[in-house]
Write a structure and sequence with these properties.
Blueprint (H helix, E strand, L loop, with lengths): L1 H18 L5 E13 L1 H11 L7 E12 L5 E28 L2 E26 L4 E27 L21 E21 L13 E19 L5 E2 L12 E2 L2 E18 L1
Antiparallel strand pairs: 1-2, 1-10, 2-3, 3-4, 4-5, 5-6, 6-7, 7-10, 8-9
């Protein structure tokens, strides 16, 4: 975790140091991003939650764009961007091995909780019209993705077995075993592009902006596509007791297999942008 924090800190410092000399016109934006997983990554997200479709990521995003020059009709810029993104807290149930209690042998079902979070730090280049109430723009970007995937065992149910046609009434209850949560963290690269449109909200008279600290306010709406290198995730269906046998009132040591895919996302961002 400390290595991850150092990497993120150095990346932010690099973005600021590389962009600062180019400051001519500064725009700062903050907003929300809504993310749809695609391709192999969508299959991974569906696997984590145990059902198909419906899982979307929501995150907060902060961006700073430095424009180059002041006179040309087109504005070229460099920018830095930070997106913190989560796919929620999902639960799913899977077969969880067997259990033997008072001469009865049962099959079991384990209910697990899983989380997947991403932190994407990017820098890139942008191009847009310098003036106008509606300003379409394009961006190309790349950077570092830091992610964490965690899974924990919530409870276990006895579902039937060879010693009895059904689970006896005294065993029809959830068991809440102690277990160490599984967690993995890693980093990789990502790259992508953005198409967006900025709506000028203030001031309506652009001549009035010249002597003011805050010169312009925009509503910014954009779509981005991004793809990363390969990462590993827990195969939720494979999480079992290490011995294959669940024993109530004993700490459960979990074993698991891994899945691998790139991160591939389509992102819609809505933000408020301030020009200085």
């Amino acid at each position: 975790m400390e290595t991850s924090q150092r990497t993120i800190g150095l990346s932010c410092a690099f973005l600021i140091a590389s962009c600062f000399p180019a400051v001519a016109q500064l725009e700062v934006s903050s907003g929300f991003s809504f993310v749809t997983p695609m391709g192999e990554f969508n299959q991974i997200v569906e696997s984590l939650w145990g059902h198909k479709g419906g899982q979307r990521g929501i995150g907060g995003e902060v961006k700073a764009d430095w424009g180059l020059g002041k006179q040309s009709a087109l504005k070229f810029g460099v920018f830095g961007d930070v997106l913190s993104l989560g796919f929620g807290n999902g639960t799913r149930g899977d077969p969880f091995g067997t259990s033997e209690i008072e001469s009865y042998q049962f099959s079991t079902m384990g209910e697990k909780s899983t989380r997947l979070n991403l932190l994407m730090i990017s820098s890139g280049i942008s191009i847009s019209p310098r003036r106008g109430s509606l300003r379409p723009y394009g961006e190309f970007f790349g950077g570092i993705t830091s992610y964490s995937n965690s899974s924990s065992l919530l409870r276990v149910f006895l579902t039937g077995g060879s010693g009895s046609a059904t689970v006896p009434p005294q065993f029809r209850k959830p068991y809440y075993p102690e277990s160490e949560p599984l967690r993995i963290e890693d980093r990789t690269w990502h790259a992508g592009f953005t198409a967006g449109l900025k709506f000028l909200m203030w001031p309506p008279d652009q001549e009035s902006e010249k002597d003011k600290f805050l010169k312009q306010v925009f509503i910014d709406w954009s779509f981005s596509y991004a793809r990363s290198g390969y990462l590993e995730y827990f195969d939720e269906a494979s999480i079992l007791p290490e011995s294959g046998v669940f024993i109530p009132d004993q700490t459960v040591i979990l074993t698991h297999e891994m899945l691998e895919s790139r991160i591939e996302i389509l992102k819609m961002r809505i933000s408020l942008t301030f020009g200085f």
